[in-house]
Write a structure and sequence with these properties.
Two copies of one chain form a homodimer.
Chain A (H helix, E strand, L loop, with lengths): L6 H4 L4 E4 L11 H8 L7 E4 L5 E2 L2 E4 L11 E4 L6 H11 L3 E4 L10 H16 L3 E3 L5 E3 L18 E5 L2 H11 L6 E6 L8 H10 L5 E6 L5 H14 L2 E5 L4 H11 L6 H11 L2 E3 L2 H11 L11 E4 L3 H13 L9 H8 L20 H12 L6 E4 L29 H25 L3 E4 L6 H12 L4 E2 L2 H17 L8
Parallel strand pairs in A: 1-2, 1-5, 2-4, 5-6, 6-7, 9-10, 9-11, 11-12, 12-13, 14-15, 15-16, 16-17
Antiparallel strand pairs in A: 3-4, 8-10
Helix pairs in contact in A: 3-4, 6-7, 7-9, 10-16, 13-14, 14-15
């Protein structure tokens, strides 16, 4: 646990949901359902609704002050006009923190609603209560059982997510979870009326549970504070930033969304460069860099790629893609080619990088990796095989499922567990191999979506190997890492 | 049916698999399994293996000449050294066409194997037998039951695929099938020792079952013929081309793969420009342009996009992406804004393009589309809703499944069919709406992979609406269509 003053906000002992709707399909009802679905201890969760005595089988209090326990954290689900009443109750109850899911305040552009927001924050601050929001999804902290979606995993990880937008926070968690990433905590802070991006960067820098920081920002209302906090954070931890609203159309949308002034692209790029943060331009880049930074991929030391895995047409297009990212695909050294040809048949294969040859078994795969990489010709390997399968040509129909497989028989739990273990074993073998050859391996999935692909990615991640959904994204990520490292020259080394 | 001389090759009455291995996991065994799995009439399929009397319950002949019926098409699964013997049997039997899956010939770079290939083709041609290959996967023709993968759908469509690489042909079919696309036929022709790209383009131009032509090429061994055939084909049908081997590394891989000389980028680009073909640079572009050309998206008449569907953070990033593709996101006209605000609440929404407001029901969605589009401010709509669902905010947990849902109860066939019908109904409503507003709608899926997403895409496609996996890909596709149409000025209009 951190001794940072914001730390208690992430670890409330008790939570009250203020204005929880009695109909489960209503907007706002998802919060208590998410907590219940995720196993939150119901004795530490209090529902507040002036008109209900019970919702979904849980007792309901008519006001915050009726709750027969201390309340650490309040989630507000009420409309904007009820906020003054909510604030009074929070002050009277002496809560520690408030998350305003409530929207319709400053971001509407209405001066009257902006004043409601300002007055509320002033009153809360005076009472020592910190606020997340308004207009956001708040906290996801697996270690303390806090979540805003019943779909998020409740295992903790080492990545902290700081996002103004709740939707984008959700998308980041949902897209990184199947790739193996787990979070120390995530916060969506919306309008940032009280707690702002710079507060969370300072917290992340100090948080012992966080090793990688990833963020989505729209506004830069306190530019100087943000830049200073970013410098402090990026000096000690890899810090990835995606900034929305950098185009004219995007800035207009950001203003409607979180009432943010988006700021100029040039200033933002300079802030990232000077702080050593990793600037990304899209959700895909954000996801890929997070995976890369959290796995062996971050150690990539040069541009010379070995692509291990065919088939032929894929190898041709992949070569074009890798060249397009200004990476190199050095030919297999003559001696290595000769050694490979001793056991790789000629027909339908290539022993010249990219390697298009299915290994017969794991021993042969290990042998191939050693022959190729011990030559010193390569800095990084892109492998389309996880070690648990040897690829397989198109049409071979092994392991790949059709577009709709609902009619298929489902495997038994035992078969499924045996399959999981086979995948985990393959990932461990590849990780060992990586240790032996001394250069990072990136696992590239070919057209893989669905449970099987997700299991492979999770197993690879657990073994320290990052998984990428295409050669294009693996190559682009390696290029970004190399360019970022070059830009960081002169700053402190963080890995 | 076409009267083109190559047409019979696509419609064999009988097929022999020459050298079919007796072990079902062996390389080559996938062909008869694919045919059997796809319901090919076993009485028209003959297995040839000199050492077996029966394989997988099917009778096996020791040579082609033993087959007690005429043989139209032969699929060769034998090693390269057996090719001369195979050729003699084909000539003796008087077959019509041969598909050489067999690899290890000219593409190895070995002059002796190149001679085997040359001599075989000369002998076959002299006997009036046309050859597909060697070193390829051959034919996929749903109407005649031909396939090289048991996973491909056996419904016919209007897209013909011409691919040198079998792996890439497989990837194209597998990636486009869940998006609704169906094929009139696909051919993978590998080294192209006899039948070449230009032969297939000429066939496609004449084929009444083909309305859209899509191709993956590596080599340009007969550049002039290819260019002339491309001109003839692109003059009458939209013709999409992806060319592998345009980088140095890619050209090297192409040479190992299909023994192809890849040719220069400049010459290839000029050939596409002059012929009016649609040049694409990646598999993703190829897939997206195929979907666009086969749906209403191809009618897009300008750069002014209406993005319909939040939530806020998604709208902000999408705006940046759309601007990055040099498209416009015109503000909602003042009158339309006012009309929308009459029934869209202020909190948590935006009625300014991008529209971030969930419609209450279909009637409201139709009303919103009319208010927005009847203003004349837009050329194209990107909708994140298919009409069958109204989106739903993050964390609402409606319809979106977690990363692993194996433990969930499976819906009954009746529930599934009701869900399918709901999706189809939504797609039809959106298509009707499209007819009313008079501009194309592109359906953009947010993070959707899996059976549910595929059902939506197929239903949309059936209603004439293209589905795209992200705003980035929809926007890039629209930009490419507009730029291609500008480049085609002066050529015949094909749609």
């Amino acid at each position: 646990m951190s001794t940072h003053p914001l730390d208690p906000i992430f670890h409330p002992r008790t939570v009250a949901l203020f204005g929880v709707p009695s109909k489960s399909e209503a907007w706002g009802a998802q919060f208590h359902r998410a907590l219940v679905d995720s196993g939150y201890d119901k004795s530490r969760m209090f529902l507040i609704n002036p008109k209900a005595d019970e919702i979904d089988g849980l007792p309901c209090y008519h006001s915050l002050t009726e709750v027969p326990d201390t309340v650490d954290h309040v989630i507000s689900l009420v409309p904007a006009r009820v906020v003054p009443e909510l604030v009074d109750q929070c002050v009277a109850k002496g809560v520690r923190s408030l998350h305003l899911f409530t929207a319709g305040l400053a971001e509407t552009g209405d001066p009257e609603m902006a004043k409601v927001e300002r007055d509320a924050i002033a009153k809360l601050r005076a009472a020592g209560i910190r606020t997340i929001g308004p207009n956001c999804l708040g906290l996801y902290v697996p270690a303390s059982g806090m979540t805003f979606s019943g779909e998020f995993p409740m295992e903790s990880g080492n990545v902290m997510l700081i996002s103004q937008s709740g939707a984008n926070a959700g998308e980041i968690v949902r897209s990184l979870t199947p790739r193996g990433v787990r979070f120390s905590k995530a916060v969506s802070f919306g309008n940032g009326a009280d707690l702002k991006a710079h507060d969370f960067f300072d917290y992340a820098a100090a948080d012992p549970d966080t090793e990688v920081v990833v963020s989505y920002l729209e506004g830069v209302s306190h530019g100087r504070e943000l830049f200073e906090a970013l410098k402090r954070c990026a000096a000690v931890k890899p810090t990835i930033i995606l900034k929305g609203g950098l185009s004219g159309a995007g800035a207009r949308a950001a203003s409607s969304h979180t009432g943010s002034l988006a700021g100029s692209r040039a200033v933002f790029e300079a802030a990232c460069r000077q702080s050593g943060a990793i600037r990304v331009d899209s959700m895909e880049e954000l996801q890929d860099l997070t995976v890369a930074i959290a796995t062996s991929a971050r150690t990539v030391g040069g541009r010379r790629v070995l692509l291990f895995g065919g088939p032929g047409g894929f190898a041709v297009l992949s070569s074009d893609i890798i060249a397009g990212q200004e990476l190199e695909l050095p030919e297999t050294p003559a001696k290595a080619k000769q050694e490979l040809r001793e056991f790789i048949p000629v027909a339908g294969t290539s022993v010249n990088n990219p390697i298009d040859a299915n290994a017969r078994d794991r021993e042969q795969m290990q042998k191939m990796f050693h022959i190729l990489c011990d030559s010193g010709a390569y800095d990084v390997v892109f492998s389309t095989s996880l070690g648990s399968d040897q690829g397989g040509g198109p049409g071979r129909g092994r392991g790949r499922r059709g577009p709709t497989d609902e009619a298929e028989t489902r495997p038994t739990p035992e078969e499924l567990e045996a399959e999981h273990e086979r995948v985990r074993e393959g990932a461990r073998i590849l990780a060992n191999l990586q240790g032996e050859i001394g250069i990072p391996i990136l696992y590239v999935q070919r057209g893989g979506f669905g449970d099987g692909a997700n299991r492979q990615a999770s197993a690879a991640y657990a073994a320290g190997i990052g998984t990428f959904p295409s050669v294009a994204r693996a190559a682009h990520t390696v290029r970004q890492l190399i360019e970022w490292r070059a830009r960081r020259e002169g700053l402190q080394t963080i890995f």
